[in-house]
Design goal:
Shape: rod-shaped
Oligomer: single chain
Number of strands: 0
Strand content: under 5%
Length: about 100
């Protein structure tokens, strides 16, 4: 059952992410950073809850909160910064215009 779900969901999610990166790279990277900031406390709470319920140590959510969340957060911030700088460099410089002298009589 899970295998079928993964085979269907991964290409769909990948296509959505690829489209978001192509259109709005800065927003996408900031969304990754925000998701990682939320992921950390959620994984800590889930780790503690499952460890208490199972009366044994639960490693999956612990590893997610210790390794994946900080790396995703730093990657999101770094990606947003580099994308913003790259977009700024791509824009042509503004042309200086002369102000009109006003109505001519």
């Amino acid at each position: 059952m899970w295998g079928i779900w993964v085979l269907v969901a991964v290409p769909i999610v990948g296509g959505v992410v690829a489209g978001a990166v192509a259109r709005w790279p800065v927003k996408w990277f900031l969304a990754v950073a925000a998701g990682a900031a939320v992921l950390f406390p959620v994984c800590v709470v889930l780790h503690n809850a499952l460890s208490a319920a199972l009366h044994s140590e639960e490693p999956v959510f612990f590893l997610l909160s210790v390794t994946v969340a900080p790396v995703a957060f730093l990657g999101g911030i770094a990606g947003a910064a580099t994308s913003a700088l790259a977009r700024r460099r791509e824009r042509p410089p503004r042309e200086k215009t002369l102000e009109s002298p006003g109505p001519q009589v």
